[in-house]
From TrEMBL:
<protein>
    <recommendedName>
        <fullName>Dipeptidyl-peptidase V</fullName>
    </recommendedName>
</protein>
<keyword id="KW-0720">Serine protease</keyword>
<keyword id="KW-0964">Secreted</keyword>
<feature type="domain" description="Peptidase S9 prolyl oligopeptidase catalytic">
    <location>
        <begin position="502"/>
        <end position="711"/>
    </location>
</feature>
<dbReference type="Pfam" id="PF07676">
    <property type="entry name" value="PD40"/>
</dbReference>
<dbReference type="InterPro" id="IPR011042">
    <property type="entry name" value="6-blade_b-propeller_TolB-like"/>
</dbReference>
<keyword id="KW-0378">Hydrolase</keyword>
<dbReference type="GO" id="GO:0005576">
    <property type="term" value="C:extracellular region"/>
</dbReference>
<keyword id="KW-0645">Protease</keyword>
<keyword id="KW-0732">Signal</keyword>
<comment type="similarity">
    <text>Belongs to the peptidase S9C family.</text>
</comment>
<feature type="signal peptide">
    <location>
        <begin position="1"/>
        <end position="18"/>
    </location>
</feature>
<dbReference type="InterPro" id="IPR001375">
    <property type="entry name" value="Peptidase_S9_cat"/>
</dbReference>
<keyword id="KW-0325">Glycoprotein</keyword>
<dbReference type="GO" id="GO:0006508">
    <property type="term" value="P:proteolysis"/>
</dbReference>
<dbReference type="Pfam" id="PF00326">
    <property type="entry name" value="Peptidase_S9"/>
</dbReference>
<dbReference type="InterPro" id="IPR011659">
    <property type="entry name" value="WD40"/>
</dbReference>
Length: 722
């Protein structure tokens, strides 16, 4: 680690600003700001890692939306995992400690201005999370939470559950594990409960009701939130607390083969099991809209629900469209919906994060658009051809936002130079800056838009007549009088992007501040530039995108005079790791001094070790049985004869979608050939390296490797030897 500190010292000595991995990893992390009903205060989570202490400090902070003043609420974030507003200072929160039931949680009601006077109102017997609350006209609070549950519907509490005597995992269908977790017999479910105003908000008799328990299924047991990334965004409760909605995967389809999911809705007080409003019997389904659903959100008066859906039942990167339906309610037998319609049939972007305008006449959404996530407004009565234009600033990547009572948006954004910005955006487009991490955090001091630029180069995708985009990031202490080696970074996905966004995993400024100019291209497959570019990757993994990263490299070589391509390196994770391996076997590989592959496919047939069979079936034109030629055509291992550039390989044990055997096999081939190579593994990390101490090693060893091969600095001797 001594080498690491020496680099920091050198930068400090020149007086130049530069961000080191350690600074980036120990800088504060701030969540999305959640405003109170009148919109004058907002609460957000705060955490900061200390390398000296080896631990994180967590807190809940309060933002004054008029002045930007930020104070600590004093609420212990080690106790409190979630806070929901009930009134302008009234809150209800989940406390992760339950003195009566080990592994359970408790609900507390209090005042954010005097947290010590909070009152415990309910004891819940499992680790519930994802609280959504409606204050009903009776004064009772209706709420939804989620937890894993047994097949019989009872919530699962790992601390009190009986541990089986054998560790066997035993399956008779092909979805045995996902992301970083082996599939067990429990599934997540949404639970409904009521707190009675007349008895100090005690949990009403009957306790919590598992809303998914009685849904009929033939193949896939209903589960909500949808794992592994689903959260409270997968369900909603109407403002009056009388109707709920949630997303669950198609019950008649195999989970490994299909992405399809439906929105279910039901009466909060009902005994009927919920109905899939866009399931196989629906108008939506019959019209061909059969893919994954998301983000159900009730309108302010509860009459309308918007949600997102893709068309294809196994294409995870199909266009995401916004829909609306109206409820006709009023009988105990459940809900029925009418007037299903698409709100963005011809908007060539992926809609996410719908938030209703207060008047219920339009919906604000986000969509990735040209290397930013931007905010748009969709009027309910907009015609089919309506093309919304971005409302948010051209320098802000919107993480999420909230709508205040006067339709002003409270935006939580970020960018390559700021981990968090809070600002308001008025209906007239006026931006009111409230907070910028770059100004507040000493770790980010000196960062700014001056290091960021964009270039455009030629596409190879037939019929695509726009230029392709790439992000360029210069070192913080850039001097026009010198040249910097190229760090060429290919993104994952392949349906993903290199964007103007803060990352704690691939932070381009941190890479640039090792003394490189980062160029991060968006070739065929990239998101945010329209569906045609996304769809073009199908059956083309090493095809058009490879030709395009060659075009991008050539553009840099010919046009960016401050970039030294002769000393360049390239790196990529996931699909970017696949592309690194493909490049290693092809001519572009000879242009780099070093290659870095993080969790990438090296053998396409081995991709059948994944559980997301829908993904490779789509991207490789079919299953391994009916499209074996495509799997073979784009297999990096067919080109091992040409592997010769020094390569650093990272592959983590908990990456179940891309098993670590791909990284080990690649390393073994390089070692067999005598190509300089190193293999880094984290047994406790998944597709990503999330723990700060692990990430510090990741950065240190990768930078040591590329700096050695690009600039001749000494190679460390830390790896485990003979
Ligand atoms: C920028 O930082 C590098 C790395 O420490 C250093 O070698 C170089 O002299 C600095 N350049 C300027 C202009 O400060
Ligand atoms: C911010 O709030 C704190 C606590 O209420 C107060 O002491 C301080 O004066 C405020 N600062 C500004 C700039 O308003
Ligand atoms: C629910 O709303 C009513 C009417 O606005 C209010 O009086 C009551 O305090 C609210 N309940 C809670 C727990 O904040
Ligand atoms: C959380 O619950 C524990 C156990 O009841 C209690 O000691 C603690 O004060 C609670 N914290 C908060 C912020 O409510
Ligand atoms: C459901 O199954 C679990 C685990 O076997 C058991 O502990 C629980 O009592 C069952 N619940 C009901 C309602 O039968
Ligand atoms: C889907 O999964 C089933 C059950 O494993 C299998 O029989 C079928 O061939 C799969 N279909 C496709 C298209 O992969
Ligand atoms: C349940 O709610 C519906 C709609 O709000 C209402 O019509 C019905 O009477 C309620 N049923 C009961 C048993 O309260
Ligand atoms: C609900 O709000 C919408 C949009 O403002 C309006 O058109 C509709 O009439 C309202 N419905 C009820 C029952 O208030
Ligand atoms: C963003 O940039 C585009 C193109 O330069 C411009 O037309 C648009 O007005 C800008 N939008 C905002 C919100 O500044
Ligand atoms: C770059 O070169 C110019 C012209 O030679 C000179 O005036 C300037 O001081 C140099 N800048 C740096 C940062 O060395
Ligand atoms: C290795 O590279 C050469 C030069 O581009 C090419 O002709 C040859 O086909 C490649 N071999 C393999 C196995 O990819």
């Amino acid at each position: 680690m001594a080498r690491f500190f020496a680099t920091v010292a050198a930068l400090v000595a020149t007086g130049a600003h530069a961000i080191t991995p350690e600074q980036m990893l120990s800088a504060p992390r701030r969540g999305v700001a959640s405003p109170n009903p009148s919109g004058d205060l907002a609460v957000f989570s705060y955490s900061k890692y200390s390398f000296e202490k080896g631990s994180n400090a967590h807190a809940w902070h309060l933002l004054d939306v008029k002045t930007g003043n930020i104070t600590d609420t004093g609420i212990s974030a080690s106790d409190v995992s979630e806070i929901v507003w009930l009134s302008d200072t009234g809150i209800i929160y989940i406390n992760g400690t339950n003195d009566d039931v080990p592994g359970g949680v408790t609900l507390w009601i209090g005042d954010i201005k005097s947290p010590s006077s909070s009152k415990l109102v309910a004891s819940l017997d499992a680790p519930y999370s994802g609280l959504k609350v409606a204050n009903t006209s009776s004064g009772d609070l209706h709420f939804l939470v989620n937890a894993k549950a047994y097949a019989n519907g009872t919530a699962y509490n790992p601390e009190t559950a009986v541990t089986p005597k054998s560790t066997a995992r035993f399956y008779d269908n092909n979805y045995v594990r996902h992301w970083d977790t082996w599939v067990d017999k429990q599934r997540y479910a949404v639970f409904a409960g009521s707190l009675s105003a007349s008895s100090n908000y005690a949990l009403a008799s009957g306790g919590l009701r598992n809303l998914l328990k009685d849904i009929k299924f033939t193949t896939t047991r209903p589960e909500s939130p949808v794992q592994p990334f689903g959260d409270l965004g997968d369900y909603d409760l109407s403002p009056a607390g009388d109707i709920y909605a949630f997303v669950s995967k198609a019950p008649q389809l195999n989970k490994a083969n299909y992405t399809a999911s439906y929105v279910y809705a039901g009466l909060f007080n009902g005994t009927e099991s919920p109905k899939a409003i866009n399931g196989p019997d629906s108008e939506a389904y019959k019209a061909g809209h059969q893919g994954a659903s998301g983000s159900p959100r009730f309108s302010p008066n509860g009459t309308t629900l918007v949600f997102t859906q893709q068309d294809e039942d196994y294409y995870e990167s199909d266009r995401v469209i916004l829909y609306a339906v109206d409820f006709t309610k009023g009988s105990d037998s459940g809900v029925s919906v009418v007037n299903w319609r698409s709100l963005t049939p011809n908007f060539d972007r992926w809609v996410s994060s719908p938030h209703w305008a207060p008047d219920g006449n339009s919906v604000f959404i986000t969509a990735e658009d040209r290397a930013l996530v931007r905010v748009f407004n969709i009027p309910l009565n907009a015609g089919a051809d309506y093309q919304p234009t971005s409302l948010s600033p051209n320098t802000s990547y919107v993480s999420d936002f909230a709508v205040l009572p006067d339709s002003t948006l409270l935006i939580s954004g970020n960018s390559i130079w700021s981990s968090r910005d809070y600002y308001t955006l008025s209906s007239s487009g006026k931006v009111g800056q409230l907070f910028s991490a770059t100004k507040a955090d000493k770790e980010l001091a000196g960062l700014g838009p001056h290091t960021f630029s964009e270039i455009y180069f030629d596409a190879a995708l037939p019929g695509y007549d726009e230029k392709l985009h790439a992000v360029v990031v210069k070192p913080s202490n850039y001097s026009a009088n010198t040249t910097y080696p190229l760090a060429y970074i290919v993104h994952g996905g392949p349906q993903g992007s290199n964007a103007n966004t803060w990352s704690t995993r691939w932070n381009f400024q941190v890479w640039a501040d090792q003394g490189y100019i980062v160029v991060a291209p968006n070739p065929t497959g990239s998101t945010g530039f329209g569906q045609k570019l996304i769809d073009g990757i199908q059956g083309q993994w090493g095809g058009y995108p490879y030709d395009e990263v060659v075009n991008g490299w050539q553009y840099v070589h010919d046009n960016l005079k401050d970039v030294n391509t002769d000393q360049g390196i390239m790196a990529g994770a996931s699909y970017g790791g696949y592309m690194s391996n493909w490049i290693q076997g092809h001519d572009l590989g000879r242009k780099f001094k070093a290659i870095v592959t993080h969790d990438g496919i090296s053998q396409t047939q081995a991709a059948y070790g994944t559980e997301e069979l829908w993904f490779i079936r789509h991207d490789y034109d079919g299953t391994i049985l009916d499209a074996s030629a495509t799997y073979d055509k784009w297999n990096p291992f067919n080109h091992i004869a040409n592997f010769s550039t020094p390569q650093f390989i990272v592959h983590n044990t908990l990456d179940y979608r891309l098993p670590d055997s791909d990284g080990i096999g690649l390393f073994n081939v390089l070692q067999t050939k005598g190509v300089p190579s190193r293999f880094l593994n984290f047994p406790d990390e998944n597709h990503w390296v999330l723990k700060q101490e692990n990430s510090k090693v990741w950065h240190t060893e990768i930078f040591n490797w590329i700096n050695h091969y690009s600039k001749g600095t000494p190679l460390d001797s830390e790896p485990i030897g003979e």
